[in-house]
Amino acid sequence: MPIPHSDSSLLHITNGDVTASSLRRSTLPGAVISWKDVLHEGPVPAGLSATARNDLRARWMAARGWAAYDSIFADFERRDRRLDQAPSRSQIVLWFEHDLYDQLQLIQILDHLRRSRPRHEVSLICIDAFPGVDNFAGLGQLSPDRLKSLFPRRVPVTQDHVALTSAAWVAFTSPEPSGIERLIESDSDLLPFLAQALRRHCQEFPSVESGLSRTEHQILSALSTGAETPSHLFTASQAHEEAPFMGDLPLWSILVDLASGSTPALRFGSPATPRDSPAFAHQRITMTEHAAAILAGSERYQLPAAVDRWRGGVHLPADGQQWQWNGQRLVAGDATGDA
Whole-model pTM? Predict the structure, then answer.
């Protein structure tokens, strides 16, 4: 049975600007909020107020060269303010996908609503395919009319949904990741894409064997088989994903990290090119002997000391103890590879 709604009270929340624009161009009534935060990259520790977390996230992103701090922080604050000031009668519709980027936003939003707006009526649209769309990657592929056709399929968010997403958010922001593994093992039909997304999150921790995250390994493998530019590497890495989730700016930052330190894994042809310049994506990249040895299994990648790497609430220091992925689960070990 379709969920009843009042046109004047609808508030749509979605993953980014492309889908938000399509929703605004559809004939669906209501305001639209674009959430946008790339939660799979950078620090998301527990215990911070929303404003303090927004400040931390904005500073980290600005340091990575994604945009100016003031702009990022203002966007986050404006987004949160619009949600918190929504009238109490608002009916909130969440529009999300199956990938890691979206699932992390979803658990953040539902945990936020649990604490700040517990009486709102909330419904969810979350898909991994759409009829007639080959190689579905996300809601941004859909026209305004196709997006509108999903509206009657939204499902009510229940207290069971909220309990699951709050547990997931606590686990994601924890300084140690054992809670994430428990959620993966429990795998709930309430949010059928969450467990796989969290497993993909775990694969971004350093590998016990190579020291590389899954994305880093995909990048070096693509270089070894002929990819030559950041643009080529982005396409090649995405092709290996079951549910592509990473945008170009996060991948550019990973490339810069791989080119850092005293024993880099790759080299840029034009290292001074800014990451926000179109030329960055088309410069030539070469693989070092160290990278070839990593892929061959005779050497191990170690994160340069200058790189501040986080996975949710887990800090990954370049030396000392860190969490690593052994192919099945996360284990505590030394950054040099002694798990």
Answer: 0.95
